[in-house]
């Protein structure tokens, strides 16, 4: 595929994600008094902000330890501090660039580029992501089910009424249009000479590499399956890194006057991270803020101003915590000369 076409599609994708982020931000802060919102944020105690930022950095170091453990399971040797540099570089891409999986691709790229165990290294990033998502779900639903009924002062009810059949009927022409486009695309591939050529090259590529990839993939999965204790430790580290960060957000919430039980933080923020992981916005921008503001207002009876400020607090901490990734990128600390993989002595 020509480079120009790839670049055009990439820019269109970025444009759509920025459009989604802008729309979500507009919906999240529509009707807000920006001066009052700014006053709430500027009124934050700098010591509390510094503590929350320090807690966030600590949570990311625990995150790196989890990935480091998964690499070691596959006998891929990389020093802890080089892994920290790669992680913070990826963190910058996750929080500041279109799509929330960009940082994962960055980590996978630099590990696979410097080890013969390319598939295993890439799989470690994938497993790391799966464990992280599983941890978010377990934390959110676990905290929900373990909230004592007698201790609930807020009403955990939702007023959303979603009639799936009615929605399908309402958007039937959109669905029909999408189906028609897919049908035309498949027809072009099957019945045109150029389309058949693309399918033939793809088929040859799959036949050439599939056996080796499947063999290595099965072996890597078998190794992880045989290391149940390591996987359990990785999940425990997930609870630690996510829980530590939630506590930092709770401290900021108390500082700005959000009087909601800490357990709701452990439910709502992990769900917001899951929403932010969807590659439809720029680092989940707007989507997460809209969800957090709405859910804290509905469930915890928090004022609109304070709920919006709390949602922005998370974004501010994320952006500040991503700055090391910018520095790492510009000074080249992520480049191969700064770390050694698959050797007994790593250069830290």
Walk me through the structure:
With 348 residues, this protein is mostly helical. The chain has one domain (13-163, 228-338). The chain is built from 13 helices and no strands. It has helices at residues 3-29, 34-42, 46-73, 80-96, 102-112, 118-145, 164-170, 172-191, 193-226, 228-256, 262-276, 287-300, 304-331.
Number of helices: 13
Gyration radius, rounded: 23 Å
Task: State the share of residues found in helices, binned by percent.
Answer: over 70%
Report the biggest beta sheet as strand number plus sense, adding barrel if it closes: none
- The domain count comes to 1
- Helix/strand class: mainly alpha
Strand content: under 5%
H/E element sequence: HHHHHHHHHHHHH
Q: What is the 3D shape?
A: globular
- What's the overall average pLDDT, rounded? 77
Low-confidence stretches: 149-155, 158-162, 338-348
- Total DSSP E strands: 0
CA(first)-CA(last) distance: 40 Å
- The multimeric state of the shown protein is single chain
Précis, in short:
It contains 13 helices and no strands. The protein has 348 residues and is mainly alpha-helical.
Q: What attributes does this structure have?
A:
13 helices; single chain; 348 residues; mainly alpha; globular
SSE blueprint:
Blueprint: H1 3-29, H2 34-42, H3 46-73, H4 80-96, H5 102-112, H6 118-145, H7 164-170, H8 172-191, H9 193-226, H10 228-256, H11 262-276, H12 287-300, H13 304-331
Helix pairs in contact: 1-12, 2-13, 3-4, 3-6, 3-10, 3-13, 4-5, 4-13, 5-6, 6-10, 6-11, 8-9, 10-11, 10-13, 11-12, 12-13
């Amino acid at each position: 595929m020509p480079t120009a076409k790839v670049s055009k599609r990439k820019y269109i994708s970025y444009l759509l994600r920025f459009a989604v982020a802008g729309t979500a931000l507009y919906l999240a802060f529509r009707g807000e008094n920006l001066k009052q919102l700014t006053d709430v944020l500027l009124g934050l105690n700098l010591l509390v902000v510094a503590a929350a930022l320090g807690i966030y950095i600590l949570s990311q170091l625990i995150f790196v330890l989890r990935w480091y453990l998964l690499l070691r399971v596959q006998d891929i040797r990389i020093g802890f501090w080089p892994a920290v540099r790669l992680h913070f570089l990826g963190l910058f891409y996750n929080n500041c660039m279109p799509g929330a999986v960009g940082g994962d691709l960055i980590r996978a790229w630099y590990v696979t580029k410097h080890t013969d165990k390319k598939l295993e290294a890439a799989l470690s990033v994938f497993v790391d992501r799966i464990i992280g998502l599983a941890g978010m779900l377990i934390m959110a639903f676990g905290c929900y089910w373990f909230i004592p009924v007698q201790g609930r002062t807020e009403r955990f009810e939702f007023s959303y009424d979603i009639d799936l059949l009615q929605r399908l009927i309402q958007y039937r022409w959109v669905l029909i249009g999408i189906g028609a486009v897919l049908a035309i695309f498949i027809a072009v591939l099957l019945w045109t000479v150029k389309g058949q050529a693309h399918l033939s090259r793809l088929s040859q590529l799959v036949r050439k590499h599939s056996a080796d990839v499947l063999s290595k993939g099965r072996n890597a999965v078998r190794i992880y399956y045989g290391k149940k204790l390591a996987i359990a430790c990785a999940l425990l580290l997930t609870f630690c890194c996510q829980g530590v960060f939630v506590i930092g957000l709770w401290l900021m919430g108390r500082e700005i006057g959000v009087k909601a039980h800490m357990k709701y933080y452990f439910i709502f923020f992990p769900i917001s991270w899951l929403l932010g992981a969807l590659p439809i916005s720029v680092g989940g921008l707007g989507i997460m803020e809209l969800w957090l503001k709405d859910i804290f207002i509905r469930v915890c009876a928090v004022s609109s101003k304070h709920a919006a400020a709390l949602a922005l607090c998370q974004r501010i901490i994320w952006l500040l915590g991503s700055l090391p990734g910018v520095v790492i990128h510009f000074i080249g600390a992520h480049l191969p000369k700064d770390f050694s993989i698959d050797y007994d002595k790593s250069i830290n």
